[in-house]
Amino acid sequence: MLCVMLVACRMPPRRLLWLRVAAGAVVFFGVMILAQVILHTIGAGGFSAPSLTRYVVYYLFTVALVWVCFNCNFWAALFCATVGYCLEHFGERLFELINRPLLGDMGNGLKYLIRTAIFAAAVSAVYFSLIRRSRYLRCNIMVDNKLQTVTSVLVVAILVYVNSFAIAGSFGNVSVIFYINIMSLTLSFMGIVLECGIAANKNSEQELAVIERILQEERERYKAEKENFDLLSMRCHDLRHRLADGETELSGTALSELKENIAVLDAGVDTGNDALNIVLYKKTMQCMRENIGLSCLVNGKKLNFIPKHELYSLFGNALDNAIAAVRELPPEKRVISVTDTGKDGFVNIQIENYFSGDVHFVDSLPQTCGDPRFHGFGVKSMRYIVEKYGGMLRVYTRGDVFIAEMLFPDIEGQSSS
Fold first, then answer.
1. How far is CA 235 from CA 199, 239, 273, 284, 344, in A?
2. Is-contact 25 1, C-beta < 8 A?
3. CA-to-CA distance for 8 and 15, rounded, in angstroms?
4. How far apart (Å, rounded) are the C-alpha atoms in residues 373 and 367?
5. 3-state class (DSSP) for residue 61
6. pLDDT digits (tens, 9 = 90+) for 33-88
């Protein structure tokens, strides 16, 4: 039960968690006593089928207990119970490997202390090195239902029945029991690896689906922004001459806003890439309103190999993060720079901004303040786009400066040469 709860603790708890866990422990203890009474009554013990079946009952009870204590679905509870059972079995088998050849004549009290120490060390090592670092979702772990069911049934059946009947059939042969324990130890570890691998793979598929949906939305947003930008450019081009001649029908707020747009368009840098021009225009307008300095020295023609909507999404997300970081800083630190420092056949875009506080990284990406299950999808979509075109995204800090670095092969330069 402790091992299962250790795996499940990453999921969001239900109300009164500790009361639920305590009640579950009392019920679990009652189920164990009842099982012992039943087995004693029917005269079943040792490696008999009824005696071994109680461990399956315990396993199913932990599935129910996870579902009662945590806000998850059945498949998440099944995942936690299976991984927890394998974790417990791994610790027990490791002790048995040492027990028979080395601790046979030792007193029960000292042997129990050694058993507890070995079990705790084994469980801690596997949990922190493998389970805790795995990328399974923290809520409603969704894997293929059939695959999850088959894996769980096979793992539990092998560890409970096959292992026990094999030991019973060894007739006390120490060498045979030693090899069976090694096999059982390996199977329990592989069960953990398999379960975490299945869940992590499904998690990656879900993240990819979310990113693709985000990019589809960005495609539509880029089309709308492109149309608005073109219309605004035409309108500003026409009215620029009318304003110069003193002819205008606009006044007040509308006139000020139009002048602001014209100023931004006039001051804007033509990077040679429409998508990048639109992003910079939009973010420059936002920065002007919030008194943030934004500078850009990038040759957008080098990024023409990236589709317009993906480039729009890439720089839009990067600049949104930078603006959010400097918004509350002192005026002298409310600056953002976008530069291309690449050479020798590479495009190296660096977006730098000041920040305050601490930045926590998960999977080499910054952790946001929102729901940790959905943190950083903007940055994840950036990494997806960069890596899709043979590039590499690095996100790191240098003192109080946050840097998002995108390194691409200079495909346009290679083509022209």
1. 53, 6, 21, 19, 42
2. yes
3. 15
4. 10
5. helix
6. 998 888 888 877 666 777 778 888 888 899 999 999 998 888 888 888 888 888 99
